Amino acid sequence: MVVSDNPVVGNLKTPLNSADFSQWLLENIPFYRPGLSPLLRGLEIGMAHGYLLFGSFALLGPQRNSEQANLIGLLSACGLVVILTICLAIYGVASFNQEWRSDFPTYSNVNPDVPNELKTTSGWNQFAIAFFVGGLGGVFFAHQVYDHFDVLKAILTGNL
Q1: Do 45 and 30 form a contact (C-beta atoms < 8 A)?
Q2: Is residue 28 packed enough to be buried (19+ CB in 10 Å), middle (13-18) or exposed (0-12)?
C-alpha cells in the first residue's frame, strides 16, 4: 500500500499504518493479494463475512435466548449478504461505467493498489457474484457448525 507524506492526500503516516507488519498484513488480505482471480477474492471475502454475520445475529441479536435464535441468525445474515451484494453491484455500475462520468476520478483509479482485474466491469461483477456465493456458504456453514455443536464437541473430545 502506498502511504503518502502529502497531507492533502488524506492518508498521513502514523506508526500504525506505516509499520512493516501493518503493510504486510494489508497486502495479504484477499482484496489486495496478488495472483488471485476476482472469483477467488470474492469467494474468500464472502465466506469470512457470512461466517461472521451469522454469529453476530444469532448470538448477539435480540432473539438470542429464544429457540429460534439460530434460524433468525441464518435468515438475517442471508438477508444482509444479499443487501451487501446489491451494494457491490451498484458500486460496480457507478464506478466502472465510464461513459457517463469520464471526468470524475474513481477509487480504483486513485488507489494504485487495487488489482487490475477488479478495475473492470466484468471483473467487479465476478467479484460480487462470488461474494454472494461465498457469503451464503459462510452463513450456512456457521449455522450448521453452531446448530450441531454438541456433535462436534463429542467428536473432538472422543466421547462419541
Answers
A1: yes
A2: exposed
